[in-house]
Design brief:
Rossmann fold, 5 helices
Length: 158
C-alpha cells in the first residue's frame, strides 16, 4: 500500500505547516508522506528548530514550496489540511476558499483552527515561548488525531 499523501498548508510563511509535516512524518512512521506549504514565500525562523528539538524531532528550514507552485506543478494529495485561525488572521476566509478551490475536487480538505505564531501578543520572552509551545502542542495533538482517524479508516497498524 502506498503512503497517504498529505499536504499541510497555512497562511503566511508556513511555520505551522512545517511543524505539522514533521510530526506527521515522525508519528506516521512511513505510512504518511507529508508535505508542507505556505501561502507566501519567505524564510522560517530558527525558533522552529528549537521548538521541535524539545520534542526530539529535527526540522529543516529550507524554503517552502508555496501552495500556488504545488498547484501549478499539478501535485496530488489524498488530504490537504489547512492551519488557520479566523480570530487572529484577517486573510483566513480568503485562504480557506483559495485552498478549497484548488484542491477540494481532488483531495479531502480538512481545516484545523491553529493560531499563527505572528499573532502571539506576549512581549515577555518566557510568555512568548510558552505561547509558541502551546501552538506546537496543538498541532501535535491534531496530527495524532488525524493519524488515529486514518489508521481506523484504512485499517493501518497503529
Amino acid at each position: 500500500m502506498s503512503p497517504i499523501r498529505i499536504l499541510f498548508v497555512c497562511t503566511y510563511l508556513g511555520g505551522r505547516s512545517r511543524i505539522a509535516e514533521a510530526f506527521a512524518n515522525h508519528y506516521g512512521k512511513g505510512l504518511i508522506d507529508a508535505h508542507c506549504s505556505g501561502f507566501e514565500e519567505g524564510t522560517l525562523g530558527q525558533g522552529l528548530v528549537k521548538l521541535m528539538a524539545e520534542k526530539q524531532i529535527e526540522i529543516h528550514l529550507d524554503a517552502l514550496k508555496t501552495i500556488f507552485k504545488r498547484t501549478r506543478d499539478k501535485e496530488k494529495f489524498d488530504y490537504v489540511v489547512t492551519l488557520c485561525h479566523a480570530q487572529t488572521t484577517e486573510q483566513c476566509d480568503v485562504f480557506l476558499n483559495c485552498v478549497a478551490g484548488m484542491y477540494s475536487r481532488k483531495s479531502k480538505v480538512i481545516g484545523w483552527d491553529i493560531p499563527a505564531f505572528n499573532a502571539i501578543k506576549a512581549t515577555n520572552p518566557e510568555e512568548r515561548w510558552q505561547s509558541m509551545q502551546e501552538i506546537r502542542n496543538a498541532i501535535e495533538n491534531e496530527v495524532l488525531q488525524l493519524i488515529e482517524t486514518l489508521n481506523t479508516q484504512s485499517n493501518l497498524p497503529s
